[in-house]
Design a protein that fits this description.
This protein has 13 helices and 2 strands. It has one domain. Strands 1-2 form a two-stranded antiparallel ribbon. By secondary structure, the chain is an all-alpha fold. α1 packs across α9, α4 packs across α10 and α7 runs parallel beside α12.
Length: 304
C-alpha cells in the first residue's frame, strides 16, 4: 500500500495524542472505565472475523479479560474501600496483584515464544530477561510494595519498576512487532510511545503500567473488531530482515548489562529487593491503615 510520509506523520501523531487523552480519561473515571471494558467483552462474537492464529487469540484474551475484570474490579473495589460488600472485598484481596503480575509475565512470554518460533532469537532472549526482572508485588523479606492499587482516587494501578526496565520493554516489544507483523508496526509504535510518554508527561513513572494496560487493551479491542489501521498506517513496506537482526542484537547488548545490574542490586539489598527508580515503591508499613480495612472485609467474608 502506497502511503505518503505526511500521512504516516499525521495519522501516527493523531493516534498517539488520542491515546494519551484516553489514558488520562480512563484514569480519572474508574466507574465509567470499568463499565466500558466490561461492555467491550460483549463484542467477543465478532473477534473470530479478525483474530487469526494462536498468538493473536492468546494476546486478545489475556489482555481484554484481565483489563475488564481484574483491573476494573480492583479499582472499583478500592474506590469503595470501606464498603464491606463481599464482591468488593474479594477484589481488594492480594490475589489481584499476583494475577496482574502473571498477566504481565504472560504478555511477555507469549511474544517471547513467538520470537523463538520465528527465529528472532536475540530478541527472544531479551524477552526472557524481561520476564526475570519484573518485580514481584512484594518480597518475603521485603519492606516495599512494588505493585499497588492506589488507595486514593482515582485508584490507579501503580507499578514501581525502573525507567530502564520500561525503556527496554518498549524497545524489545517494538522489535518483536517489527518481526511478527510489520504491517502493524506503525500503529503498535503509537501505543508503545503513548505508554512511554504518559508517565513522563505526568512526572509519575509508576503510571507506566496503567498507560500500557489501557493503550494496549484499546488497540487490541479495535483490531479484534475491525482493521482500521491498515488503510491509514500500513507499514508492511518497512520490513527489513537486516534491520530486525541488528535490532535484536542491539536489544541484547542493552539487556545483558541491565540484568547484571538488576540482580547485583538485589543481592546487595539487605531485604533482597530489586531497585525501583527515583520514586521508590511505598513501604508496606505505610499501607497498614488501609490494609486493616481489607482485613476487616476478609474477616466478614469468613464470618470472623
Amino acid at each position: 500500500m502506497n502511503i505518503s510520509a505526511w500521512q504516516y506523520a499525521v495519522s501516527m501523531t493523531t493516534y498517539i495524542v488520542f491515546l494519551l487523552l484516553l489514558v488520562e480519561g480512563m484514569r480519572r473515571t474508574p466507574r465509567l472505565t470499568g463499565a466500558f471494558w466490561l461492555l467491550s467483552l460483549l463484542t467477543a462474537p465478532l473477534w473470530a472475523e479478525n483474530v487469526v492464529g494462536w498468538f493473536r487469540w492468546a494476546k486478545t484474551v489475556s489482555v481484554l479479560i484481565p483489563t475488564a475484570i481484574v483491573v476494573g474490579g480492583a479499582r472499583i473495589a478500592w474506590l469503595y474501600r470501606e464498603n464491606p460488600n463481599q464482591i468488593l472485598a474479594f477484589f481488594r484481596g492480594d490475589w489481584v496483584l499476583k494475577v496482574l503480575y502473571l498477566v504481565l509475565f504472560l504478555n511477555i512470554a507469549e511474544a517471547t515464544a513467538k520470537d523463538f518460533a520465528t527465529a528472532n532469537y536475540f530478541n527472544a532472549i531479551c524477552g526472557c530477561i524481561l520476564c526475570a526482572t519484573i518485580p514481584f508485588p512484594r518480597y518475603k523479606r521485603g519492606v516495599r510494595q512494588y505493585w499497588l492499587i492506589g488507595r486514593d482516587q482515582p485508584n490507579d494501578l501503580l507499578f514501581y519498576s525502573t525507567a530502564a526496565w520500561n525503556f527496554l520493554y518498549t524497545t524489545w516489544n517494538l522489535a518483536f512487532v517489527y518481526g511478527e507483523n510489520p504491517g502493524y508496526f506503525a500503529s503498535s509504535f503509537c501505543i508503545l510511545m503513548a505508554a512511554e510518554l504518559y508517565p513522563i508527561i505526568k512526572k509519575r513513572p509508576e503510571l507506566y503500567l496503567t498507560a500500557r494496560v489501557y493503550t494496549l487493551a484499546f488497540h487490541i479491542l479495535i483490531r479484534a473488531n475491525s482493521d482500521i489501521f491498515t488503510p491509514v498506517m500500513d507499514s508492511t513496506s518497512w520490513a527489513n530482515d537486516n534491520v530486525l537482526y541488528f535490532w535484536g542484537v542491539l536489544n541484547l547488548v542493552l539487556h545483558i548489562p541491565f540484568a547484571w545490574w538488576y540482580f547485583k542490586q538485589m543481592k546487595s539489598s539487605p531485604t533482597g529487593e530489586p531497585p525501583c527508580g527515583d520514586r521508590p515503591a511505598p513501604l508496606q508499613a505505610d499501607l497498614l491503615p488501609c490494609e486493616r480495612v481489607r482485613m476487616r472485609s476478609d474477616a466478614q467474608l469468613s464470618g470472623g
